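User: Some background: our group keeps a shared notebook of sequences we're curious about, and every so often someone picks one and asks for a predicted structure to add to the entry. Today it's my turn. The entry only has the sequence so far, pasted here. Could you supply the structure so I can complete it?
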Amino acid sequence: MSSKDYYKILGVERQASQDEIKKAFRKLAHKYHPDKSGGDAEQFKEIGEAYGVLSDPEKRRKYDQFGSAAFDGSSGFAHGSSGFGGFDFSHVDFGDFGDLFGDLFGFGSGRRSARSRQTEFRGRDIQIDLDLSFHEAIFGVEKEIELTKSSVCERCGATGAEPGSGVITCTDCGGQGVQVNIQRTILGQFQTQRVCQTCAGSGEIPKKRCSTCLGVGVQQKRKKISVQIPEGVDEGMLVRIRGEGEAIKSGTTGDLFIKIHVKSDHRFKRQGYDIFSEVSIGFTQAALGDSIEIETIDGVVELKIPPGTQSETSFRLRHKGVPGKHSSRGDQYVLIHVVTPKRLSRKEKELLEALNLREK
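Assistant: Of course. Here's the predicted structure to add to the notebook entry:
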């Protein structure tokens, strides 16, 4: 057998860590698995061969010393009569392969307990839309929302059993919560698992079904939920309320996601933590200076306009913006528009002519 560069096959350096080797294998195995569209069985076998050696510290040490010839006829990847296509997998530890391909293709080694599998069952998440005023989005608000969703049955507590009747081991899955089938792949035999349809993954069935939910463990209910919207939220943000999604039997409840929509306010524009507004002043105010009132999200404040202020000048009001910027607040920027009078009386014209205000 010609020498093979297992590191090159997986696309890693010779100094690669076990974690890097595993990540490379997962990526390539997913790409070339023969059950996938565009898969390549030969390429897949080479990837598996390389990973089987490099993932084992002792085999990797021998490979680094002697190359792939060290495994001709003696290793778990020797050519022989068993396996697929003359490829012998009889000595390979498939534990890690099972876990990896369980993640990639939905089957695994079957070593986890029924109880640990039950903790993986989770109800669906729910997303709803919520409209807020500009002020509510800035300072936060408590809102009561109402929605219809599956909730834990109050009578049986999601067991599906009539109170006092108890449960028995599911005969279809033997209490495992999953139904197991054997799947033959290029790397050997793997167990494929799916949630038991009879017990919904709990491994138990009620002796007598709950009269309220009929054994389902959950029921559709209209529920009011009080939620606290934090300060500083903005358009399109998602607020997550844990445990307020769909409930399921023998599993955890999903989450509720609230998508924020903020109503516009003609007085203000927002960019991040800063707020922008505009105000118009007269020619005399700009030339001589003045003190004017400015609307902010906190109320009206006084802004001093210095003499000689030009149109399109911006003034900064510190800490009048959105809360949350470095545990403080953003700022408000006020853009000044100087309005030139369009209609003047004869006397006003005479006064301006006498001043002869020209750019020097």
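Suggested note for the entry: The first strand starts at residue 79 and ends at 84. Residues 73-96, 102-119 have pLDDT under 50 and may be disordered.
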